[in-house]
Amino acid sequence: RAKSAGKGRADLCDPELVRVSTERVQLEAALRRAIDDGELRAHYQPIFTVGEGLVTGYEALVRWERPDVGLVAPAGFIDVAEQSDLICEIDAWMLLRACADLATWGRESTSYVTVNISPRHLARARLVEDVVRALEAADLPASRLVLEVTESLGVDEARSADQLQALRTLGVHVAIDDFGTGYSSMSRLHELPADLLKIDRSFLDPERPGWIEALSLIIGSARAVGLRTVAEGVESPAQLALLRELGCDAAQGFHLAHPMPAQAVMELDLPDVRSSVGA
Ligand code: C2E
Ligand code: MG
Ligand code: MG
Ligand code: MG
């Protein structure tokens, strides 16, 4: 469509382009208002140790409780937020919320909460400030917070790597999210400024040729360089059994627990947690 406008130029009169960009601008404005009006919600998905099946942590996942629409998943607004500074607002809000919630639950003192940090936020100097403020407000030790970053951007940019290192010096842990979907290669695992590796759920797909070998290689290599592994998207007992066999440390997925509001986490009847990120 926009091709007719010539190489590298968008046709500003293209009705479809105008419609899409108008929608995006409207969504961005609505989201900006939503953040101010307190419409963001934090849901938490428990992370279990594979060996004992105990809850070791919780991943914080944002939702937008949009009046007249209902609960909107990140897929409906994260992309738009990522294209502006709104994502930094969302991440900063979540840091405060998640640290406060974990502190309130009064769970085993080794359990942790993980917060997804966008590449944009990671490249900003304010991240360290946002993290410190959240920990202080909740009076939470730094070791109980895990930041989830994606491998490609978290590692390649010098600024991001420096920030991660500064945060780790404070005692905050770092997880590489969706591992295996970005650019890092197995041979560079030891260079990752991280404590945890979250293996993308595409590696648990039985349709994927050689998936067991790939999983086994990732888990073995991570272990060799002292990174703990968390498998994402565990949907069946068979997948969990395989992870146990391969020596994966932790797992999350619909088979174990769905993301839930903070109140539901508090009402979970959990045995004590004995494992932590660093254990
Ligand atoms: P993610 O960090 O990889 O989070 C895991 C996603 O997989 C979540 O989707 C979760 O609900 C879903 N999931 C968990 N178990 C299963 C399973 O067994 N099967 C399947 N098919 N999916 C499972 P959700 O909550 O829709 O979040 C999507 C993405 O949005 C997240 O992917 C993360 O990249 C981003 N996101 C969520 N919250 C935040 C946030 O506060 N800040 C930032 N920057 N990004 C966020
Ligand atoms: Mg994540
Ligand atoms: Mg993930
Ligand atoms: Mg993933």
User: How would you describe the shape?
Assistant: globular
Overall SS class: alpha/beta
Q: How do the helices and strands follow one another from N- to C-terminus?
A: HEEEHHEHHEHHEEHEHEEH
Q: Overall mean pLDDT score? A: 88
Strand order of the largest sheet: 1-2-4-5-6-7-8-9
The helix tally amounts to 10
Protein name: EAL domain-containing protein
Domain EAL: 24-273
Question: What's the helix and strand layout?
Answer:
Layout: H1 15-36, E1 40-49, E2 55-66, E3 70-72, H2 78-82, H3 86-105, E4 112-116, H4 119-122, H5 126-138, E5 145-150, H6 151-156, H7 158-170, E6 173-179, E7 196-199, H8 211-224, E8 228-231, H9 237-246, E9 250-251, E10 260-261, H10 262-267
Parallel strand pairs: 2-4, 4-5, 5-6, 6-7, 7-8, 8-9
Antiparallel strand pairs: 1-2, 1-9, 1-10, 2-3
Helix pairs in contact: 3-5
Bound molecules: ligand C2E and magnesium ion (MG) (3 copies).
One magnesium ion binds near residues 177, 178, 198 and 232.
Keywords: Membrane, Transmembrane, Transmembrane helix
Protein name: EAL domain-containing protein
Protein architecture, described:
With 279 residues, this protein is α/β, with parallel strands linked by helices. Helix content is 41%, strand content 20%. The chain contains ten helices and ten strands. The chain has an eight-stranded mixed beta barrel. Strand 2 (55-66) and strand 3 (70-72) form a beta hairpin. Helix 3 (86-105) runs parallel beside helix 5. The radius of gyration is 20 Å and the shape is globular. The termini are far apart. 38% of the residues are buried. The model is unreliable at 1-5 (pLDDT under 50). It comes from Nocardioides mangrovicus. Keywords: Membrane, Transmembrane, Transmembrane helix. This is EAL domain-containing protein.
